[in-house]
Specification:
Number of domains: 3
Number of helices: 9
Largest sheet: 6 strands, antiparallel
CATH topology of the largest domain: Nuclear Transport Factor 2, Chain: A
Radius of gyration: 22 Å
Length: about 300
């Protein structure tokens, strides 16, 4: 099996660590200027040919990044060996103990990763507009570190950090509110890592706690509402400003009649809260989206206090 190796700052050569930090700062400055064109010029070919996601991320975030003072974290160097892309490349970084990860360790799991040397560079960007983690995945090509991925994540949702969500999840767990606990644990894990394919000792522990409250009736599942039954396909939380809402999606044959679909959405909201009254303790509102087979959808939103 091809080897997958991770080097922390203490393990790699100083020149490599400096080169990664320099590249990360250079790409941060491009993003803060809104210079997506330069980022694209410095991207690996596979990313440069489909750059719309990066362009949108730069457009959405450059104003906030421009007024922040970025502070780099120690980078990671990932080495993937072999001749073919790895279906599931797993990199264990730092020191691991008998119980698994330790305070300063990390695990990165990346699917379909071609062989090569990669850097993970994260900068903490804090300003009056908010606190962000800005991360770059870099690939070494011809002695240069090319852009392979760009992630901008707020470190808070609805005005709270990951530790707050973890504490709230534990409160919900002690009250027997498994659905609320499940979603709050998930949000905590999301906020406590700068990239979605990273895990730490803290997020591993939260994952273990999360599994103890996993509801047996997560979508896909049917929901009875009056004389009709709806097939729920997804259920997940989303921060909206300073509020934390719950999104539910369900299958619809046709959403072109907005009046009828609005009534269906309202019925789903009422039935969902009726079945799970605990949601009133955890979410400020519910967003319901009726989704056609084509993917076209129609959404409605109500504050929780208005769902009778």
């Amino acid at each position: 099996m091809p080897a997958q190796t991770c080097l922390t700052t203490g393990d790699m050569e100083q020149a490599t660590s400096s080169a990664l930090a320099t590249a990360g700062k250079r790409y941060y400055d491009m993003a803060a200027r809104g210079d997506a064109a330069s980022l694209r010029q410095n991207a690996i070919t596979s990313l440069a040919t489909d750059f719309s996601g990066i362009e949108n991320a730069v457009k959405d975030n450059h104003a906030n990044l421009a007024v922040a003072q970025p502070a780099p974290r120690p980078p990671f160097l990932l080495k993937a060996e072999g001749t073919e892309p790895l279906a599931r490349a797993e990199f264990l970084c730092g020191v691991f103990g008998a119980q698994g990860q330790t305070r300063d360790s990390a695990v990165f799991v990346i699917p379909n990763l071609p062989p090569g040397n990669y850097g993970i560079v994260t900068l903490d960007a804090v300003s009056t507009q908010g606190a962000y983690n800005v991360s770059f995945v870099l690939q070494q090509q011809a002695g240069d570190w090319k852009l392979g991925g760009f992630f901008v994540r707020l470190t808070q949702a609805a005005g709270h950090d990951g530790n707050w969500f973890a504490d709230r999840a534990r409160e919900f767990k002690t009250r027997g509110q498994k659905h609320n606990a499940w979603f709050y644990y998930g949000e905590a894990r999301e906020l406590l890592v700068p990239v979605p394919f990273m895990a730490t000792a803290t997020t591993d522990r939260l994952y273990d706690e999360m599994q103890t409250v996993k509801p047996a009736d997560l979508p896909p599942v049917e929901l009875a509402a009056g004389t009709k039954t709806y097939k729920l396909t997804d259920l997940f939380p989303v921060p909206v400003g300073q509020e934390f809402d719950l999104v539910v999606k369900y299958q619809s044959t046709d959403v072109s009649d907005s009046g009828r679909t609005f009534q269906d959405n309202a019925a789903v909201m009422k039935a969902l809260v009726g079945k799970y009254p605990e949601f009133r303790d955890a979410f400020a509102g519910i967003v319901v989206r009726a989704v056609e087979p084509s993917g076209r959808d129609y959404g409605s939103m109500l504050a929780m206090k208005d769902i009778k």
